[in-house]
Amino acid sequence: xxxxxxxxxxxxxxxxxxxxxxxxxxxxxxxxxxxxxxxxxxxxxxxxxxxxxxxxxxxxxxxxxxxxxxxxxxxxxxxxxxxxxxxxxxxxxxxxxxxxxxxxxxxxxxxxxxxxxxxxxxxxxxxxxxxxxxxxxxxxxxxxxxxxxxxxxxxxxxxxxxxxxxxxxxxxxxxxxxxxxxxxxxxxxxxxxxxxxxxxxxxxxxxxxxxxxxxxxxxxxxxxxxxxxxxxxxxxxxxxxxxxxxxxxxxxxxxxxxxxxxxxxxxxxxxxxxxxxxxxxxxxxxxxxxxxxxxxxxxxxxxxxxxxxxxxxxxxxxxxxxxxxxxxxxxxxxxxxxxxxxxxxxxxxxxxxxxxxxxxxxxxxxxxxxxxxxxxxxxxxxxxxxxxxxxxxxxxxxxxxxxxx
Length: 405
What we know:
Elements: H1 6-16, H2 21-25, H3 29-46, H4 56-75, H5 83-87, H6 92-103, H7 106-135, E1 144-145, E2 156-159, E3 163-166, E4 171-173, E5 176-178, H8 188-206, H9 213-227, H10 230-246, H11 251-270, H12 272-278, E6 285-286, E7 290-291, H13 299-307, H14 312-317, H15 333-355, H16 363-373, H17 380-391, H18 395-402
């Protein structure tokens, strides 16, 4: 009987736990996450549930994560629970994901990430093609899709299921009507978050040893700018400046960076009105209401008011995953509300412990910036970042760990 490779199983888990639009529209996300859990348990059973040792920092990171997981599941009993929510551990998929590097060899992890990058580049290439054909009037679609977890009830226009754009966002520039590209993902900001992670994976793992990496990065960049995602633009700016800082002694790179920045400034000055209507309007600030063009504005004041009114014990260990948060539910601040100061701190410490002894630490600020804006880490994003960290171990660490296999 043909045995499915470990890397392919991890790739399937990544797909099942990604924030694709089709999963939300069909309301199948919960069932797919349960299926992903089963696949991971099957994968672990192949290894006879025997964990490798890992580095000291990785072991400590795992312990802190398990503590955060246990605390999170204690906190949920502060609110009303259904029987199913009470007996099934909340966030079990993340616990299984954090165990993946302790069961699976490095080659399988890398194969899974490469498959995931290739799949999404193919999906986004097709999505960009139908999107630009739609913008130029060659194709047209009246198909609207709605998901119960979308904030805006107007829905998204579907372009053959390959790409979506918000039905309520429409801007006319120079006779061309423009929309925000979502690809096959849940919304433009979610697409931006996934693209940031995909680009950092490409740069740290495949850019120098895979001939298709540059093409995939180009597709990811095109999709990111087409999404008009401030998250994506901000993260790419940080990545660019970090790269310039690290390569400041490289005259060729420095010359490119200076020319690029001058070109960017010229474009900004000449096309300010168009850029404002597309992106910059989200930075409009009002002293009373905050950033009036940004739907995440005011979340901090809402959090402080609501957080100060819950019992001190819940402030420490969390109000639970089902707490009714009155502010924007995508900000990292809701994680503090759910997990409490102690639980959230354990999660952050766990992450930084996994960062110890790894290369490309300049990627960490990019990830943190992105997740601070859109904290959708409960799924594929979590495993993608964790696997990228594990695969970017310094050479000394890799030699030391080979003895554990």
